[in-house]
Automatic annotation (TrEMBL), chains A, B:
It comes from the Bacteria. It comes from Jannaschia pagri. This is Cu(I)-responsive transcriptional regulator. It is found in: Cytoplasm. CDD domains: HTH_CueR (cd01108). Keywords: Cytoplasm, DNA-binding, Transcription, Transcription regulation. SUPFAM superfamilies: Putative DNA-binding domain. PROSITE patterns: HTH_MERR_2. Residues 1-68 form the HTH merR-type domain. PANTHER family: HEAVY METAL-DEPENDENT TRANSCRIPTIONAL REGULATOR HI_0293-RELATED, REDOX-CYCLING DRUG-SENSING TRANSCRIPTIONAL ACTIVATOR SOXR.
Amino acid sequence: MNIGEVSGRSGLPTKTIRYYEDIGLIHPNRSGNGYRAFSETDLHKLVFLGRARALGFSIEDCRTLLALYEDDSRESAQVKAVAQGHLAQIDAKIAQLRSMRETLSTLVASCQGDNRPDCPILRDLAGAADDQK
Amino acid sequence: MNIGEVSGRSGLPTKTIRYYEDIGLIHPNRSGNGYRAFSETDLHKLVFLGRARALGFSIEDCRTLLALYEDDSRESAQVKAVAQGHLAQIDAKIAQLRSMRETLSTLVASCQGDNRPDCPILRDLAGAADDQK
DNA sequence: ATAGGGCTTCCAGTAACTGGAAGCTCAAGG
DNA sequence: CCTTGAGCTTCCAGTTACTGGAAGCCCTAT
């Protein structure tokens, strides 16, 4: 399989696939003409990577997960630990965004949004202390 | 004021302050010795930037907001539009994270996390199709 | 022979800093 | 007066995970 076909089947851009090879996530063979020659196994790994990335795992997490995937003597606890760590980070991120969202939506609601210069949003940014008026 | 004092008063690292000057967000004067000489106005701008960044606005949004802040003839509608745009992005991000969180927490819950190799998380990553068994 | 599309590599840029190196300035102590 | 150390300066590189673009080879069809 050439890179174009693998790209179509995995849903990953060719650029990304080459990048994954660069950083050592996959190791496709080469044909005589210098083209990458992907095996079904390579394709499966790319699909795996695509799914893991879609769930927000970092590349380094993906590297770990892929190694575990290929290690028949892995313990599922190792996989679970990685996933739980990532889940905790997602929760932290969500909490942070919710906090921002709350402040921001309050500010947006308090702004008239008309042609006058007075704006509670700017007032808040200029100094949280100046709450009122 | 030297950069150290401004850093302390604004809560921003000196590195960040220099970076903000590099990209043209602030324009502090220079003393005879080559040190940056910050005015109270510079400090206020930095506090403004720190708050805006804390709310997740991009640097480019910050640039826009700062310009509006300094423009006495601004219309609050302009500010509100920027804030609403950002709010929409935050909502999109939260939705994405929640979706990831849901999938991931289901997977984590289904994994025994023991010393055996069998793992539903890896099974899912390897191909969403292989749901059961 | 030539045109095109796919493949190759390599370089640069993205967002917003952060760390580190080399070197100048300033205030205090001996 | 000299030294020491903190604080300041600039510049370069690295971070994350790609993405775009340039220059050029390969293969197939006309």
